[in-house]
Amino acid sequence: MPEIEAPGTSLVQRIHAVYDALPAGERRAADIVLDRPGELALWSASELAAQAVVSNATVSRFVRRLGYASYDAARREARAMRRAGSPLELARRVATGPDSDDPAAVLAADTQLLQAAHGLLDQTMTAEIAARMAHAPRVRLAGFRNSYIAAEYGRTMLAQLRPDVEMLNAPGQTLAEGIAGVGPGDMVLIVGLRRRPAGFRRFVRAVAGTGADVALLADPGIRETPAEARWTLTCPVEAAQVLDSYVGVLSVLRVLALAVMQQLGPAAHDHLSRIETLHDALDEIGR
C-alpha cells in the first residue's frame, strides 16, 4: 500500500470500511481500537500488539491498510480526537463512568449521549437521506428487538408527513413478504442497534438486493457495516447504567423527520390536514 495518509476520513470510519477484509490478527487489533479509539493516542505499537496478542508487524500492516503512512500517523489522529472532544470519545467516557441509578446521573448520561449523537451527524448525509425519504415512491423502516421500537417511532412521524410509509418487518408477516414489497427507487431505513440478531447482515443484503436505497442507523459498536447500505448514521447508546439509552437515536430520527417535512413543503402540511380531517370524522382522538 502506498505510504500516504488517507484524507477526510476518521480513524473509526477507516476501520469500518475495511473490517470485513481484515485477517484475524488485524481484526483483533481493530476490535481493541474500536472499543477505545482515543486510547490509541496513549499506546505504543508494542502495547497495542500485546493487547491484541499479535506481532508488531501485524499492527504495522493494520495501520497501513487503513491508509496511514505509519503507526505514529494513526496516533496523531487519535490525539486529535481526544483534544477535540470527539463524540465517540465522549460516548466512551459516558459508558465507563460510575454505575448509578441516581436520576441526576441518568440525566447527565442522557444529555451527553444526545450531544454525542448530534455531534456525529453528517449534515450532507442527513439531507440526502431526507430527500430520498421525501420523494421515494415507498418508504419502509425496519428494526429488530429494541431497534424495532425506534424504527416504529420513526415510521409514526414520517407517516404524518407523506403516504406509503410502513414497517418492513410488520407483525404478522415474514421478512420475505416485507422485502418483496419494495423495489428500485424505494427508500428503506434500517435501525440496527446492539444487540443485532443473527442474520442481520443477510437481511440488509436482501433489502438492498431489491434495488431500494438503504440507510442504516447503528451504534458505534457495529463492526461489519454492511457495504450494501448506501448511508450509515452512527449513534451511541451505551451509558454507565446497565440499560442502553436511546435518547440520541430518537432525536436523530426526529431530525430526519423534520428534514423530510422541509423537503416536502406544502405537501406535508396537506397530508397532515387530511389526517386531522379524518380524525375528526372518525372521532378517533380525544380532546
Q: What is the total number of structural domains? A: 2
The class by helix and strand makeup works out as alpha/beta
CATH class (first level) name of the largest domain? Alpha Beta
The global form is elongated
CATH T-level topology of the largest domain: Rossmann fold
What's the Cα radius of gyration? 21 Å
Assigned CATH superfamily of the largest domain = Glucose-6-phosphate isomerase like protein, domain 1
Strand order of the largest sheet: 2-1-3-4-5
CATH architecture of the largest domain: 3-Layer(aba) Sandwich
- List the secondary-structure elements in sequence, H or E: HHHHHHHHEHEHEHEEHH
Question: Which stretches of 5+ consecutive residues score pLDDT under 50?
Answer: 1-8
Largest sheet, strands/sense/barrel = 5 strands, parallel
- The helix content, as a percent range, equals 40-55%
Strand content: 5-15%
What is the averaged pLDDT score?
A: 87
User: Helix count, per DSSP?
Assistant: 13
N-to-C terminal Cα separation, in Å? 66 Å
Number of strands: 5
Pfam families: HTH_6
GO molecular function: carbohydrate derivative binding; DNA binding; DNA-binding transcription factor activity
Protein name: RpiR family transcriptional regulator
Organism: Rhodovulum euryhalinum
Describe this structure in words.
The chain has 287 residues and is an alpha/beta fold. It has two domains: 11-84, Winged helix-like DNA-binding domain superfamily/Winged helix DNA-binding domain (Arc Repressor Mutant, subunit A, Orthogonal Bundle); 120-282, Glucose-6-phosphate isomerase like protein, domain 1 (Rossmann fold), CATH 3.40.50. Helix content is 54%, strand content 8%. It has a five-stranded parallel β-sheet with strand order 2-1-3-4-5, sandwiched between helices. The longest helix has 18 residues, at 247-264.
